[in-house]
Each structure stands twice: as structure tokens, then as C-alpha cells.
Design goal:
about 200 residues, alpha+beta, Membrane-bound Lytic Murein Transglycosylase D, Chain A, Glucose Permease (Domain IIA), 2 domains, ten-stranded antiparallel beta sheet, two-stranded antiparallel ribbon, globular
């Protein structure tokens, strides 16, 4: 059932290039979703202003429903305490100075701050991931994974079982980072979701 849900989920995200005369209401009707879904998923600051050539990722209602159903089953805690320096969605990249989609949230914290597992799970990824720096990936129930990037040190090994709240890494600034912070991401299958919808 989980595999069926995830296959359905992957099919429910549509990459769309804006055409002249498009607006969110038209797109929401065309893809059987809502203006709010499209706007929040893409982090649109001015939903009334779409530019031809702009690429939007359009989630149908199925991804919103699946995300909500998994959220009720999987209770998460904050991986680190700190200020959110960059949210989920489109932003001007602090290093590249270009508009990019940010698939997680950046939580600013002093270097060496303990990073906790947001939920119990299994370590399925450890190591350097290019711009994402030294990272840890945990797998949880329902095909959900949590990602912890730019760390300075990893304290778990591949295959380890970890409990919610267990220290798994230390905050750092590895990879493409302007300062010490944790880039925290949640994925359902291949798709990122807004962590703020999952955290208490």
C-alpha cells in the first residue's frame, strides 16, 4: 500500500512552465488542485504575478492529503533550536545570488550545536553530498525520510537505529553555506514537503 501511495504521489507533482495569460486560478482548475496549494508549495510572495517562462511545481490534492495523513502518524520534534534563516520554497540563494527552489528550512545555530533525530528511524545515508555538505539521512515509517545537511560532524553510522531526540550530528557549515546552520528537509518518496507543516 505504501508503494502504491508513493507511486501515486510521484505522479501528483507536475512541473509546469507559465505561459502568457496564465493565472493561478486557471492552473488550479486545470490540475484539480487549489490556488493555496500551488502558492504555498512554490513559496510565491506575489501569487497574482506570474511571469511567462517561470517554472511552477503543481501539487494536486492527493499530495496534500497524503502529507496530512502521514503527519498525523509521524510526530516529529525540532532537530535543533534556533532561528529559521531561510524557509521552504523559492528564494534568492545566499551564495549563488540566483532564484532557486529550497527544499527545506535553514535553522541558524552555533557551530557544534547538537542535531537531534526529528523522529525514530534508521540511518540510510551518511557522507558528503556536494553543496548540501556533510549530511545524515534517516528513514521513517510510510516512506518518509528526514535530511540533515551542512553538519560539521556525524555521530551515527549507516544502518544504525536511532530514537527520536537522539543526537546524530553537530551543526556546521560544510558544503555551500554562508554560516553555521542546519538545512533540514522532509521527503515523502522523492518529493520534499514543508517541514513547518510537520514540526510542532
Amino acid at each position: 500500500k505504501t508503494i502504491e501511495k508513493l507511486n501515486h504521489l510521484r505522479a501528483s507533482i507536475v512541473s509546469y512552465t507559465v505561459q502568457q495569460g496564465d493565472n493561478l486560478t486557471k492552473l488550479a482548475n486545470r490540475y484539480d488542485t487549489t490556488v493555496t496549494n500551488i502558492s504555498s508549495y512554490n513559496g510565491l510572495q506575489n501569487p497574482d504575478r506570474l511571469l511567462p517562462g517561470q517554472v511552477l511545481y503543481i501539487p494536486t490534492d492527493s499530495i496534500a492529503i497524503l502529507s496530512r495523513s502521514l503527519t498525523t502518524r509521524l510526530r516529529m520534534q525540532w532537530p535543533v533550536k534556533g532561528r529559521i534563516s531561510s524557509g521552504y520554497g523559492y528564494r534568492i540563494h545566499p551564495v549563488l545570488k540566483a532564484r532557486h527552489f529550497h527544499g527545506g528550512i535553514d535553522i541558524a545555530a552555533p557551530e557544534g550545536t547538537q542535531v537531534k533525530a526529528a523522529a525514530s528511524g534508521t540511518v540510510v545515508g551518511v557522507g558528503n553530498r556536494g553543496n548540501y555538505g556533510l549530511a545524515v539521512v534517516l528513514e521513517h515509517t510510510g516512506g518518509v525520510t528526514t535530511w540533515y545537511g551542512h553538519t560539521s560532524k556525524v555521530l551515527v553510522r549507516l544502518g544504525d537505529s536511532v530514537k527520536q531526540g537522539q543526537t546524530i550530528a553537530l551543526v556546521g557549515r560544510t558544503g555551500l553555506a554562508t554560516g553555521p546552520h542546519l538545512d533540514f528537509r522532509i521527503k515523502i518518496g522523492d518529493q520534499t514537503v514543508d517541514p513547518l507543516e510537520w514540526l510542532p
